[in-house]
Amino acid sequence: MTTRRTIATAVALVMVLAACAAETSPTTTEGVAAPATTTTVAPTTTAAPTTTTTTVPETTTTTTTTTIPSPEPLPIAGPEGYELVWSDEFDGDELNLDNWSYETGGWGWGNGEAQNYTDRTDNVRVQNGLLVIELRQEKFEDSYYTSGRIVSQDKQEFQYGYLEGRIKVPAGGGTWPAFWMLGSDFFRNPNDPFDANWPEAGEIDIMEWLGNKPQTVIGTVHGPGYAGAGGFSKWFPQDFPVYEGWHTYAILWDETGVEFFFDEQSYFKVTPEMIGDNREYVFDKPYYFLINMALGGALGGNIPIDLEFPLQMYVDHVRVYQRV
Questions:
Q1: What is the pTM assigned to this prediction?
Q2: Which of 17, 167, 211, 305 has a C-alpha 20 to 30 A away from that of 91?
């Protein structure tokens, strides 16, 4: 009897020990899972270098896109039988006031233009051998845009010749850069800018270009009885955006009329016969130059809401050749 009890007690003790072993075994299994959690977290720490890498190209791109290289110089060579009588190559470090004056103001300039013309170097300057006309978005007086406009009135005026400008226009809807001329007798009342003897004084638009029509060059003359939409004009389309490169705009002007050129290609001529006997031909007297960049207005058109500023119009030179 005692032996049986001893055996039973031993068996019971073995069963208790087995049960304890069974309870501790799951705990060991859960403990093995902990390293797996550590392994999955570790790779996420390698994402930090990715942020640093992506910021570098953005900084480099912003810096390089602001530089416009100067064009290769064009030889001084007018049409056969013509010689250079005057030029501004814009080689100094400031605007030559022996040649040019500033016109300033933000009253719309008769066309509903949005910009205010200033005489600040922010808007007009000579830099790296170029005249720079810069259009900016900023509050200035009663306008929200500024730009530049220079004229050669009473300083450099010419009657007849081959007159050219080498220009690069910016890409941007609503922009309206121009290289043009007014009769030397043009007058504007300083107390009332709308009081002027236009179109009686005459106007020759050697070049107008519209950012909203980027593949078209415009040449026009205006005079009494043929002004505004009634001017004699030619819209000369190209198969490329004009803003992509440097181009030469010129007129060959003599007693027979005013002939327009784009990169030495003739595309339009206005003659006294076209004006007719019932209207006054006013292109037989001295004229002066104007260079400006407008925004919006009657011809500039809509200003895109996402237009990026500033925008620059560059002029490499203005040259005048006359018959020998």
A1: 0.80
A2: 211
